[in-house]
């Protein structure tokens, strides 16, 4: 088809979902370099797209805050209508996302056949549950005449200022004069929005001690909501080679920090996708959810640690607030030694 003058991509779920939509944005920019590409995201993910060459404009949709409810939806639709968008691609499968694009008067609206608002779309693509989420998102470009390009990785673009902030933090915490002489470091992300996705604190403490004993430095990463958890881990370990960066950095700064490390170990949460976008090996700990849902780290060196053979797993698509069986076997059966061995394997050092 003729290149659209303006393309909208709507993903207002979690930060990780926005990162997984980046390959679609990158593909659109590659095929339609003259088109204005706009991304609609949650406010938390707005800064993540700064400096990205595929994104011409970002619109933050505060759907749970200032722009909540029908009035907020109508205001947002009016704003998008004024941008005169030709085509909308909607990876987010909510009714609200489809309705937003319909109210904005966008003539071509492409989404999944499983979308709650599929009746508001002009084109639907099959949501293949066995595919990775990146592959599913890329399929939305097919109605625009773009054949499947094969798997692509997301990319993030921290600025020079982001790098300087991270370098200053590393020097302050680990006492090195230069990034060139920075100590070998593993990033650890112990938090998650969902309680059942969190590997137990006691196991993170054991893992950190194993890594320190093996000569690594460790930096804890996460958002402001993870600061209390990370403070407890630091208090339990009490070692100058352990630094806490939780709640200190923006998402792009956090991406740059993870990019300074040899590997990341994380629950099934946003830091996994930050590391993938920075080409850093990941060891992801999966409990209530399954890698086959399509959200596991896809890199050739990435590893997933999980407990197989449990009748109760998966217990939900996202995880939950509490274990439905009261055992938490999916996480409790994963040992610190097992995770340590996977980290050292991807980081390229002997146990």
Explain what you see.
The chain has helices at residues 15-31, 43-46, 69-82, 95-103, 133-138, 160-174, 201-213, 227-237, 251-259, 270-277, 329-332, 336-347; strands at residues 6-10, 36-41, 57-60, 87-90, 108-112, 123-125, 185-189, 217-220, 242-244, 263-267, 282-285, 303-305. Helix 9 (251-259) crosses helix 10. It contains twelve helices and twelve strands. Helix 1 (15-31) links the parallel strand 1 and strand 2. The termini are far apart. The chain has two domains: 6-144, Rossmann fold (3-Layer(aba) Sandwich); 162-347, 3-Layer(aba) Sandwich (Rossmann fold), CATH 3.40.50.2000.
Layout of SSEs?
Elements: E1 6-10, H1 15-31, E2 36-41, H2 43-46, E3 57-60, H3 69-82, E4 87-90, H4 95-103, E5 108-112, E6 123-125, H5 133-138, H6 160-174, E7 185-189, H7 201-213, E8 217-220, H8 227-237, E9 242-244, H9 251-259, E10 263-267, H10 270-277, E11 282-285, E12 303-305, H11 329-332, H12 336-347
Parallel strand pairs: 1-2, 1-4, 2-3, 4-5, 5-6, 7-8, 7-10, 8-9, 10-11, 11-12
Helix pairs in contact: 1-10, 3-4, 6-9, 7-8, 7-12, 9-10
Strand content: 5-15%
Overall geometry: globular
The CATH C-level name of the largest domain is Alpha Beta
| Low-confidence sequence ranges | none
CATH superfamily of the largest domain: Glycogen Phosphorylase B
SSE pattern: EHEHEHEHEEHHEHEHEHEHEEHH
Largest sheet: number of strands, sense, barrel closure: 6 strands, parallel
CATH topological fold name of the largest domain: Rossmann fold
- How many helices does DSSP assign? 12
Q: How much is the average pLDDT?
A: 93
């Amino acid at each position: 088809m003729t290149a659209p003058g303006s393309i909208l991509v709507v993903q207002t779920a979690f930060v990780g979902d926005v990162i997984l939509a980046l390959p679609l944005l990158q593909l659109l920019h590659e095929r339609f370099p003259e088109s204005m590409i706009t991304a609609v995201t949650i406010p938390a993910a707005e800064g993540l797209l700064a400096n990205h060459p595929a994104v011409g404009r970002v619109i933050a949709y505060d759907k749970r805050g200032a722009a909540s409810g029908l009035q907020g939806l109508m205001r947002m639709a009016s704003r998008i209508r004024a941008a005169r968008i030709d085509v909308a691609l909607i990876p987010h499968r909510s009714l609200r996302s489809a309705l937003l694009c319909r109210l904005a008067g966008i003539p071509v609206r492409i989404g999944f056949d499983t979308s709650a608002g599929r009746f508001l779309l002009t084109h639907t693509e099959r949501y293949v549950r066995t595919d990775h989420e990146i592959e599913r998102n890329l399929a939305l470009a097919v109605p625009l005449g773009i054949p499947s390009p094969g798997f692509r990785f997301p990319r993030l673009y921290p600025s020079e200022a982001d790098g300087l902030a991270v370098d200053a933090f590393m020097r302050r915490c680990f006492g090195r004069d230069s990034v060139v002489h920075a100590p070998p470091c593993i990033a650890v992300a112990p938090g998650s929005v969902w309680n059942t996705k969190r590997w137990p604190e006691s196991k993170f403490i054991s893992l950190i001690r194993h890594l320190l004993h093996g000569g690594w430095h460790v930096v804890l990463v996460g958002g402001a909501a993870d600061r209390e958890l990370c403070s407890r881990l630091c208090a339990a370990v009490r070692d100058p080679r352990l630094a806490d960066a939780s709640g200190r950095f923006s998402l792009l700064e956090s991406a740059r920090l993870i990019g300074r490390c040899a590997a990341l170990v994380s629950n099934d949460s946003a830091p996994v996708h930050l590391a993938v976008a920075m080409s850093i090996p990941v060891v992801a700990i999966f409990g209530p959810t399954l890698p086959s849902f399509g959200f596991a780290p896809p890199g050739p060196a990435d590893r997933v640690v999980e407990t197989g053979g449990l009748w109760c797993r998966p217990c939900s698509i996202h995880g939950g607030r509490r274990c439905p069986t009261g055992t938490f076997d999916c996480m409790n059966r994963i040992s610190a030694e097992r995770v340590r061995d996977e980290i050292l394997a991807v980081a390229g050092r002997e146990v």
